[in-house]
Amino acid sequence: MNAHTSKDPLHGVTLEMQINRLVAQYGWAELAARININCFKSDPSVKSSLKFLRRTPWARAEVEALYLASLEGKTAPRTAPAKKADTPAAEDPWGNWRGGKPE
After folding, report:
1. Percent helix, strand, coil in the chain (nearest 5)?
2. How much is the pLDDT for 56?
């Protein structure tokens, strides 16, 4: 008889196991940069992270996605920091004015 094998890559993997692996791979600071949640930023611990992630489905989905990406060898993109404006029009408050620059 064939044993049932699950195609779900998270089958048998607890949330605690996922967090421990991600912390070992990235560290708390990098984890906070990749997933912008306070339980990774402010006094991080596995216990506080588990408590928050169990109550917050969207955050848990982010952690699971990063965990799966780390298993596949993919690097999930970091949360991009705010970019500085590179265009002179953005630096000049009158640059977007349709009438041109006032004299």
Report:
1. 50, 0, 50
2. 95
